[in-house]
Design a protein that fits this description.
By secondary structure, the protein is an alpha+beta fold. It is built from 17 helices and 13 strands. Strands 1, 2, 3, 4, 5, 6 and 7 form a 7-stranded mixed β-sheet that branches. Strands 11-12-8-13 form a 4-stranded antiparallel β-sheet. Strands 9-10 form a two-stranded antiparallel sheet.
Length: 564
Amino acid sequence: MKRLIECVPNFSEGNDMDVIRQITDCIEAVDGVKLLDVDPGKATNRTVVTFVGEPEPVIEAAVRCVRKAAELIDMSRHSGEHPRFGATDVCPLVPIAGVTMEETVEYAHALAERLGEEVGITVFCYENAALIEERKNLAVVRQGEYEGLKDRLSDERWKPDFGPATFNAKSGATAVSARDFLIAYNVNLNTTSTRRANAIAFDVREKGRIKRSGNPLTGPIVKDDTGQTVWEPGSLKSVKGIGWYIEEYGVCQISMNLTNIRITSLHAAFDEVRVKAEARGVRVSGSELVGLVPLECMLDAGRHYLRRQERSTGIANSELIKIAVKSMGLDDLKPFVPEERIIEYCIAADSDAKRLVDLTLEGFTLETASESAAPGGGSVSAAAGALGAALGTMVANLSAHKRGWDDRWEEFSDWAEKGKAYHSELTWLVDEDTNAFNGIMAAFRLPAGSDTEKRERDEAIQAATRYAIEIPLRVMEAALGSMEVIRAMVEHGQPSSISDAGVGALCARSAVLGAWLNVKINSQDLQEQSVADEYLTRGRAMAEEVVEAETQVLALVDRIMTTS
């Protein structure tokens, strides 16, 4: 449920590790941000840094590290092979989870504004964040590089989007963008022929190969009317690729950059390379991820290969990941460890936060029975709802694989996906209800000495109270929604599991009514009666609806069981 963005600043220093360390220390000092990678290049005299977190702390870390780079790096003394025009040359933001590209563009503009106003950096926005159409292309924005920046800034057409329009010889300028996630991905081949590997790479990469007349290898190069070389595009959009031989493994690989996984996904790239390789008499033996990958990318791959097998996709994320790994041979050269390769899992593994849902069932019940006020009825209601939704999902998955029902697998897979979404939401709400309670307690502990402090404390208490009502309302909505899945499984699922669906209905009813109690008691502490009344009206309607739904489902269960 976390909203995650990645930041990939490129700093114009690749040799002085002390400078690089001071910059990355600024990033690691921000709570809620995880430093994923630091990649210095001596020849380019440039370091690519990758960190990730929720949007607000990521922006804060970006501001801090750009400020530090401006202090430590002197562009008037910089040289390197890579194009550049600033101490922090580029600073792109990348949506990872729970954040749209449109929202990421807004965050990029917020970052650019802070860099201009707080740090005094000259900022140009490019790619998706471009405010001027001709600035979408980074090469256009950076044309002339650092050496041409002074003259460019004197041109009114190249007034920066944020920050000073005067040339700063020390820090130069920074380009800020919002872009898609880039995956570095290699597909392994059962050949040692670099020529054949390159041929396959040219088949799939967007750029393709140079067009020749007659013999495709030795024929004359085709030119257009202007004398420019004609290229035959490959089959995959937003993919760069080349073939090479890896001596360490004794095989060739197709090395690809997937520059927009919304256009060409990981599994689509793997499947297409496999098809093109087979056409050339070469077999794909597996693949290899370089760096990290978003969780949803792996889940999409798992669902894709399950659908090809006509199997339900509404299964646990861990199982979807296993299917993806085995289908694409991601463990062909070395073990694939999800906690080390999936961004969201890396962050979770590095967190010190203790989650209730990570406890054993016994541990959760003992924690609930302890003297602490939380977890309490709200978390238990969410847990009951998660169990109810899980039972509905289970019946859907069993029905999808029932002998003789092969032609109905997709129907039940869709129900399983819906059920999984509900129990995933409710599982998250187990901890979030306790977090909401802790938020109220924290607000009460705020200082209240002066009139200003008292007002701020009261506002914080009211905001925390509203959140502590909204969370059980979400529990009610999700548990009530799961009733649709449960009822469908009573009516259409495999008959031998009808009692499981009935238990799911009982759990869903308990979850809704239990969360309703939390809504009612927390609404008493709201000062705005109109807001409290709105919450109570929503909650009451759902409480009444779930009682009616449970009555209908259990009556249906009883009727089917007594007539079968």
